[in-house]
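Researcher: Good morning. I'm working through a list of sequences from a screen, and I'd like to move beyond sequence-only analysis. For each chain I'm collecting a predicted structure so we can compare shapes side by side. This is the next one on the list. No need for commentary yet; just the structure.
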Amino acid sequence: MEIRYKDMSLFYNLFIGYALVLLFGTFPATAIDVFTPAEVMVENGTTGVLQCTFKSREVISSGASVSWTFLAEGSSSSPVTIFHYSAGKAYPSASSQFKERVEWIGDLNKKDASIKLTKMQFSDNGTYACDVKNPPDIEVMPARTQLRVVMKEALPQTNTVVIVGAVIGAIIGLILITVVTYLIIKRQESNHDYEGCTSTESVSSQATRLGKKAESSSEGSRCSSPSAPVQGPVIYAQLDHSGSKNPNSFHKMEPVVYADIRKN
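Model: Good morning. Structure tokens for this chain:
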């Protein structure tokens, strides 16, 4: 019985040890994820920014470091280190191409490992790699970005320029719509305000003044719209019943029925 218990104890120890080996052997090692833009375009003679950010599962330690390497476009040689940062100090490249042109603008506490290159030139075209280590996170795949130095005319328009252009276009369009709408409304109001008098009413007012007191100014000013039908001229006459041919004699004359000739 004692032998059996010893065998069982040995079996359990071996089982636990084997499980621990499987558990830690298959558990992924800690690593850093590094990110850079795939391509950067910079105008010749200006300052270019090489952005690099990272994610680490560990707290940023004093041993954290950043390295930037450069491989010239079309070159078959190995990349060269142009910048290194560790223990809070920057170590720019002393090579003739990048001498006094590389500056540290990152902040490891903000997980930013960016640098900038001043006085960009066409010989700077190539691939730049950002490598970050934060012990114990030391396993990392460097992120690469392609830099293209071009003339100003070849630079693509930024989103800011596109947005500003769209806003200006919308404002101009709104102003044009407002002006056209205002002109249409004013034209319609001027058509409604137009009034004219017909010839029939004008002649009738003259006939009334012969035998009757003239009507008030308000009644004589009544007019109809231009759309009313235009009447023809009115002919009227007065008859003399005295039968006298003496031109000096005065005879009473009375108005008679007057004809109204209308044009169809």
